[in-house]
What does this fold into?
Amino acid sequence: MKQSAVIKGLGFHVPERILSNKDLEQLVETSDEWITSRSGIKTRHVVSEGESLTDLSHGAALKALDDAGLSPEAITHILVATFSPESYIPSAACALQDRLGLRGRVAYDISAACTGFLYALENARAILALHPESKILVCSGDVVTSRVNWEDRATCVLFGDGCGAAVVAAEDGGPHRAVIRDVSLASDGALGDLLTIRGGGSGRHYRLGEPIGEDFFVQMQGREVFKHAVRSMTEVCNGLLERHGLTTDDVDMLLPHQANLRIIEAVGKKLGIPGERVFINVDKYGNTSAASVPIALSEAVHGGSVQPGQRVLLTAFGGGFTWGACLLDF
It folds into this structure.
């Protein structure tokens, strides 16, 4: 019998600094009207000098642990989904372990871009299948603005920074936020060139003192990404629901990756889920990559948009390409 996994606690943390569309008008040739009409984004939170992913993941982790009623010492595994760790070595998970004052835990990073939270949840479920006594801290976030070209108005207006966290454990009859009913994941590396950050990787060797190039930053073919994102998220959601004999009528809320309002609305429309059952907070945070889904989930739960007895469908799409869906029963 498959071990049931539950989310015992949720939390998120974003930087204090807020960058509005009006602020961006002073940085790049753009306007509030242009940004809002194309993305639905009004503000985004961005790190200040010296602030890193470790700061954001630590803040999110403490809130999720408090929500779960657990101390850091109870955690056996730390998973961090990100493409923007504070450093390549040590990993983001090891850095977070140290910040939490822990030693000897299993700690590793997961790289799946904006789909990172769903990939991490599936990893957590797999761990629990082998070690049901585990208490797993999942942190999913990015400092996207560390890899944004502020001279490229097509991309720099879209992104913000943040981290979301969940404490995942085996169902034991105790209090929990949600049961992870199932997860479905997919990827297609053949489409990877449509959304990239190549600079800084082993395929691009930099010499000391050499200026970085445009490939160090997010580069995206927006129209193609839009098309693949909508199709992939729609298909994976339908497939997951079909696997359980469900339809979108059985879903109380669709909570998609908060990349762009047009993408969110297109996915909801293709799935036949009306707007009042689609959670949206992209206007406040922008596209926070791996943090997008857990921030939205935490905000929806703690804000009362999700109630006990409801079913929530998560879905995300990210560079790689990666995509996935997850069914949660509250």
Notes: The chain has a mean pLDDT of 97.
